């Protein structure tokens, strides 16, 4: 793209402009941009009815509501809906018998996931040249090659049927093959893709990594932002914005400047989305300075279609429709954060009904956006667009000051989420120390992943000490929080992305003490993944950091296997730290 075109695009998507919430993909339920609601589709609405009927018929045991909104139709929606309406109901309670409902589903639907076909990546080789040269232990190397081989198991291509008859599928068409997380997560997901790509780069699968990025770019070009996942029912929210970081890692590995040129306009569009009135909040600090920061806020105020029956049950204690709608928005916004669910978003933990995600300004989201601004400036410099460089360096400087002013705790030596009085739109919120969330979460340390913070030597020393004494570092990795709430983004679960962000930030600081701590975290995590794999034969999405070799639990679904980001982080850790022959791999 010509430089003058990029400059024009920059002006079009400058920070001062609001995202176009009147676009064809969105509709507002009120005059306030904080009340944006994305319309559902007739197909999704019908599949929610099927989901509810299935719960009534089959019961709650082993029931996964997502299965029903992933089912592709064999016939038109009108034919299928009519047949559904004509199903005989039991006179006693009006429900459909299990035999009848099973017969209906088999006749009118294909299986969940049948609209994706297996795909063999062209750039996969069984043992890539230069693969994990620092791994000297034969058992660890053999296991790493098995983890590497899982990319073939997780590679899919959207069926041509989806493009031919999109009205029969909630799955969205994509231009390139995908790598899925695994199990029930049978479509591409936004923030998972970053750690998938990190693993693919270790596996020398640059083309597959680039294809994933281009799929995400295609979503921005169509919807104005990267969706949570490639389904119709995910068009109401995004996920942690890490696309620029994916592009940066591929560029760093390949030097592909054409990729940068192709993607930069989409990144500018994504930046505008995240800095629109939907997500932007102004805080006036103790010195009277105004800072713009961002929060998660889904464009949705109904039950999530993929968990509709669960959300309705959770909201049943609210009698007021407005309260229900606000609660549904906070549930969907927690899903947008990737931390679904955690006491981090609850005003009165662990009471799930006090979920108030839109009233939280999260530390990690603003760190990711700082990274996006730095990356955009870097990309613009690489192609010679000085105007964009200057603008985004100014934005990143302003965000760094905002992060330090609003989140940093001088006493705790970490960054703390900030609670707003409410999730409503206000001109500005006045900062008060009492509104910082004093509870310890792994996210409190995510800013260290960003260059402005890991490059500050004195700050790194303080943060390392705070992390060491936080209670988060356990026998098998970093805990997500210190609260055992039964939610999956809480204690005792550990998640691959959190291990990686914290460890990599420590390494990048250049501090010897920080690197030793990073290696300790990585060793614990690698060991636990290895032992768990040996016991179960699969990689898991989360682990129990209290027990080496045990997978995690809690939350609204059974622990999933596969697993994209877990594989990626193990490979990235082994590339960074290696594994000497004389180090035990067992717990």
UniProtKB/TrEMBL annotation:
One of its GO terms (molecular function) is alpha,alpha-trehalase activity. InterPro entries: 6-hairpin_glycosidase_sf (IPR008928), 6hp_glycosidase-like_sf (IPR012341), Glyco_hydro_37 (IPR001661), Glyco_hydro_37_CS (IPR018232). GO terms for biological process: trehalose catabolic process. It catalyses: alpha,alpha-trehalose + H2O = alpha-D-glucose + beta-D-glucose. Pfam families: Trehalase. Residues 1-18 form the signal peptide. Keywords: Glycosidase, Hydrolase, Signal. Transmembrane segments: none annotated. The keyword Hydrolase applies. It is an enzyme of class 3 (hydrolase). The keyword Cytoplasm does not apply. Its EC number is 3.2.1.28. Belongs to the glycosyl hydrolase 37 family. This is Trehalase. It comes from Arachis hypogaea.
